[in-house]
Amino acid sequence: MSRPFAARLGANENIFGPSPKAIAAMEQAASDIWMYADPESHELRTALADFHGVTPQNIVVGEGIDGLLGYLVRLLIEQGDTVVTSDGAYPTFNYHVAGFGGVLHKVPYRDDAEDLPALLAKAAEVDAKLVYFANPDNPMGSWFTGEDIVAHLDMIPEGCVLLLDEAYIELAPEGAAAPVDINDPRVIRMRTFSKGYGMAGARIGYALGETGFIRAFEKIRNHFGLNRAAQAGALAALQDAGWLASTQANVAEARDTITGIAEKHGLKALPSATNFVAIDCGRDGAFAKAVLDGLVARGVFVRMPFVAPQNRCIRLSCGPADALALFDAALKDVLAELG
């Protein structure tokens, strides 16, 4: 579209925004932007270590989870190595695997959720070096308890690593975070300041894992890839627990509002542990795409899963009441037009 969207609800962004303290910290850092940032992210890694009860040596900071995914694949995958993911899961991971010559094996979703036992069974079958699993999941918003995940760790084949993408974990129910032993070299967890902390444009995230594994990133990461403002903003955001709590409440309220809108129009919102909701349009992917196109034409930006049968849904971000009201009105018009 040549004009701005009236409601931008399609990019899984946290529309409630970052902590005012994070904004102030980034504004203050701007005056020193002529200097390179700390290549070790010492202050931030120390604060993250305290937050998680680990050591700074268990943490590497990078340019969002996207950047860390690239580093991880570069570190582990060579030409012809096999990698397992879910069919329809986060596509950026797949691009990294293809770029480094890896061979992807995909496992279908089960009941609109990633299927961890099937992923690990496929990894054993194809001798995979890496398995991608997101909890909570994008694009469906589904989730497992952390205890469920830990219960399946013994299924990880020898020589394989489970990548646990926890981008949305701050917005998930209590107990969704997997209590993985930080010294377990079979698992690496990734988190971000893009979702719960509302800093998607700053591009900053981190990985947690066993010390030797995490320190191996020093061989291949871009040591000056993070800017000063992002580091300062992330540190301030981490320290503002009150703002995160208010965001969690706003997101929960918006999920309920979206569920009500869907039901009002004869559709079904799927349960979500994220800052977005998938809405089952009740037919096939072609109908969902028609709904999406109609919404976009009316200035409401949403997206949809790209693999059947999940592509029967549209997906929209949680947002303030005015944005969701625009979605409500546009959806009513679109559904009336499509019949």
UniProtKB/TrEMBL annotation:
GO terms for biological process: L-histidine biosynthetic process. This is histidinol-phosphate transaminase. Its cofactor is pyridoxal 5'-phosphate. InterPro entries: Aminotrans_II_pyridoxalP_BS, Aminotransferase_I/II_large, HistidinolP_aminotransfase, PyrdxlP-dep_Trfase, PyrdxlP-dep_Trfase_major, PyrdxlP-dep_Trfase_small. It catalyses: L-histidinol phosphate + 2-oxoglutarate = 3-(imidazol-4-yl)-2-oxopropyl phosphate + L-glutamate. Residues 9-319 form the Aminotransferase class I/classII large domain. It holds the Pfam family Aminotran_1_2. Pathway: Amino-acid biosynthesis; L-histidine biosynthesis; L-histidine from 5-phospho-alpha-D-ribose 1-diphosphate: step 7/9. It comes from the Bacteria. PANTHER family: HISTIDINOL-PHOSPHATE AMINOTRANSFERASE (PTHR43643:SF6), HISTIDINOL-PHOSPHATE AMINOTRANSFERASE 2 (PTHR43643). It is an enzyme of class 2 (transferase). Belongs to the class-II pyridoxal-phosphate-dependent aminotransferase family. Histidinol-phosphate aminotransferase subfamily. Its EC number is 2.6.1.9.
